[in-house]
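Tutorial, part two.
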Amino acid sequence: MFVYPKAYDVVVIGAGHAGIEAAMAASRLGCETLMLTQNLDSVGQMSCNPAIGGQAKGQMVREIDALGGVMGLNTDATSIQFRMLNSGKGPSVRSPRAQCDKKAYQFRAKAILERQPRLDLKQGNVTKILTEDGQACGLETNLGLRVMAKAIVVTTGTFMRGLLHVGLQNQSGGRMGDSFSTLSDSLRDLGFEVGRFKTGTPCRLNGRTIDFSRCERQEGDEPPLPFSYIPETLTESPNDIFTLNHWRDGMFHMEQLPCWITSTNTHTHDLIRANLDKSPLYAGRIEGVGPRYCPSIEDKVVRFAEKNSHQVFLEPEGRHTEEYYVNGVSTSLPMEVQYAFIRSIPGLENAEIMRPGYAVEYDYCPPTQLYPTLETKRVPHLYFAGQINGTSGYEEAGAQGLMAGANAALKLLDQPPLILTRADAYIGVLIDDLVTKGTPEPYRMFTSRAEHRLHLRQDNADLRLTPIAHRAGLVTGLRWEKLSAKTATLGQLRAFISATNFEGTRIAQWLRRPEATHGLLPEPILQQYPDDLWEAVEIELKYAGYIARQEQAIEKLRRSEEKRLPAHLDYDAISGLRAETRQKLSAIRPATFGQAARISGVTPADLALLSVYLEK
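Running the prediction step on this input gives:
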């Protein structure tokens, strides 16, 4: 056994989207950090869809950026198309989404990590978590390397006991072409509950074999809106060949590529139905629970039998490749069936499959075993983030990684933890859902999961979260300077609007047709404030009544969160509590009265008894 001579403050296992944010957050806070991954050539790989954002997910990316994270700016640098989803609907559901050049995203992420102070990258397959006096203290790899650390963040994605399925054939691996990890055996030995989930991905096609004339063209928005609040840092440099888009002359410049839309048909569905016996999902070969909100094409055909077609989106995987991601037909059917049903779709009659679609089963740890900091309850100084917690999606993973890495570092620095509430951020909703309710299927974020979504908009993430990040030490320099200037300017604009009794509808008129509302506002005022601030004030005025009601609900939530519950409270000693309630409260050990109220099965009567007991 070789013990690595350098001991680290924080070791991050895994280099996906959760691992990247965890390692960057810990190192930004001043901790000596190691990122350990099975394959250094796969850092930041977009294993499934080469896109970032989407409904509710786009809000989380802006939140990650507001907290000083990497995902938003890296997306801006390497995106090839941008769209604002639900742009015709209310502000609470508008969500940014960008198609990325997946290799540029991956390589640029690796370059950022390699250049980050206090962060080392190494290759290794971790097989064991080491503990001393019940606390995490290091790890071992399959090659006999032992690394000592004060805290460990596990971000293993789909690699723990990963099993790939194409038809009735299967092979071990966390991703097609990569090996798997046995780390979940070590977690079981430490007493963790381990479950099994399943996800999947569609085939990739050669763009030269697609007849785009039979497809509907889908362009990006002009002008594109960056995810990051500091896009001006994307300057052109001959040493940064992976930054495709740049900030020049006060504007964000991106050369956008089109996506394309086609649809399945009754012939497609008949082919799939005729071959369901060859699907590992329907043949009983897959044990893990799959994502209900991102079903395979087999599931769509069976569960929505009344539908004669489903949309299929053809999305380019980069500027310098002919590969297209076929969004909407995730599958684990055999290759011959994939060829048959793909070629039944208009525009794809002669399509060549470059990579087959497949399903992957993997181990995860039910997240009710975690505190809101994402530290495990069973082993102190051990943190979980990403798909190991039962989530799906790059954005959910990145959000958890940032929070876990930050909290690991803050604990070592003897600083208060970074905990976001449901009223602070979608990230707060995500983590609270996971640690309080658990998840019976791969968890995906939706705007409907957030009760305060009019407050948690994509346009105000910096105003909500950057002050919190600044207090924690995650944000300094340009980000903080920009927010301070924006806050001051927004205050001036609000004061002007209030003094002139200007209405939200008139602001909306000016934003849409400034030439038709000439004279409504003095020209110096129009030029003094940027459009995004006018839009912010417009939302505040138009939705003032709704926002006021949400603020009242948020205040009620804050009061419930301020009512702390003792960490070692003996729920068995509370007279009158039902057995089910005692069991759930003892298992989850809520940190606050508010969290206890959100546990499934805990009733108002239970909460009344708990409140009386605490007062006594």
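The chain has a mean pLDDT of 91. In part three we will examine how such features are distributed along the chain.
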